[in-house]
Design a protein that fits this description.
homodimer, 228 residues, alpha/beta, five-stranded antiparallel sheet, binds adenosine-5'-triphosphate, binds magnesium ion
């Protein structure tokens, strides 16, 4: 459902060029749960941002459900993101002026839709990540792991076909982390959602169907997980 | 060298009171490396902020080298922080308008001192965290783990007696993470620095001399690590 062809991303800093991705051919099928691991700075977040259309490649293509993202206008790309993709950012990216509940509903509000039909789903999602009683708190009144859990709920409110998760358990204790991973696994198995998760944690990677290894902007290894 | 007595921290949110710490008696001796673990929201960052004088308790005392922090003025407290404590924040807290190198030198600059004598130490520290060639880049041009490593270098530039680290390896792959932990261990062993590290990673906790477990704002368990 989502694949890349010879994906290259180059950043220019003054006269220095940073090759974040050096030609990546990545593929994930519908209903598959793939983990991406690799050293710090190897290009994982960059790959995730390109997959989600949050940034455009220097060359190469990202193809989502048969459609080349490069052919879409900024508006069309923005709409694909809001309606079909849920993104969990490495730095959470919560809006400091909104409450936790408003942050979770943000994808709906940005889409110009009414939030009322989503109240029940909001409550259910907050309950699933253990944040039900914190709905009215602002991000700066929450711990790091609590903010991360709000970011996770926000990515799932639209029941997206594709979840792109950038180190979603990095600030969570093992119990909250396992809870989140089990949740992602459930969404994948029961709703055929497609999950691409960047992680540094081998235990988190073990929840995936397959693990892809990135190093210096290239895929260097892949291995399927034995799962029953 | 650093201990607390009946430490309580209460946050007031509208009419809701959040008891972040419910009476904590914590002690760390000079030259000791202590890890603090516990569920998300259990009060770890709050405890670390109070230990570093970044916030004041609702009741109870923080005593640093025999001095009650509550007796210090804001200015005096600020000076203690700058000169004796190195703080690694859970969210890094790098200044977006400064380069990586300038961010590392910030404690020196804030102290009104000349940065020139620190250039060599800056280069050495950046080398130790693998960020030597990124000195002139801004934080938004760095990956999550690269930002974390800059935050780590910043905490160490003043060669502080006490390092307070809030989940310092949360965004690092296992190799960069082990590197940072070995660095903290070395500073502790060779320079008798005192390290208090919050972590969710049992492997990181294994580098410490002792692990303290926090739950719902209270210390519920402690255990020494078998180290040779
Ligand atoms: N400024 C604040 N206002 C209100 N409540 C706060 C504030 N800061 C923290 N809290 C609350 O205090 C409790 C402890 O927070 P703390 O950040 O210390 O947790 P933590 O153990 O570091 O969690 P994590 O592992 O998720 O980082 C949490 O319930 C949190 O929501
Ligand atoms: N806006 C930018 N400008 C310049 N360079 C950038 C920018 N964003 C990322 N980079 C560089 O691209 C490379 C890949 O970054 P990326 O964020 O994808 O790494 P990562 O694998 O997610 O690392 P981490 O595990 O530390 O989060 C890094 O060397 C980084 O410094
Ligand atoms: Mg990243
Ligand atoms: Mg914390």
């Amino acid at each position: 459902v989502l694949h890349t062809e010879a994906l290259v991303k180059r950043y220019l800093l003054g006269e220095v060029e940073v090759m974040a991705l050096r030609g990546v051919d990545f593929r994930v099928n519908r209903g598959e749960f793939v983990a991406i691991m690799g050293p710090s700075g190897s290009g994982k977040s960059t790959l995730l941002h390109l997959l989600g259309g949050l940034d455009r490649p220097s060359s190469g293509e990202v193809i989502l459900a048969g459609e080349r993202l490069s052919t879409l206008s900024d508006d069309a790309l923005s709409q694909v993101r809001r309606r079909r993709i849920g993104f969990i950012f490495q730095a959470f990216n919560l809006l400091p002026t909104l409450t936790a509940g408003e942050n979770v509903l943000l994808p709906i509000l940005i889409d110009g839709r009414d939030a009322a039909p989503y109240q029940e789903k909001l409550t259910a999602l907050l309950g699933m990540v253990g944040m039900a009683e914190r709905q009215h708190h602002k991000p700066d009144q929450l711990s790091g792991g609590q903010q991360q859990r709000i970011a996770i709920a926000r990515a799932l409110i639209t029941e997206p076909e594709i979840v792109l998760a950038d180190e979603p358990t990095g600030n969570l204790d093992s119990k909250s982390g396992s809870n989140v991973l089990a949740m992602l696994r459930r969404i994948c198995d029961q709703m055929q959602a497609t999950i691409v998760m960047v992680t540094h944690d081998p235990r988190a990677a073990s929840f995936a169907d397959r693990v892809v290894f990135l190093k210096d902007g290239q895929i260097v290894d892949q291995c399927p997980n034995q799962r029953d």
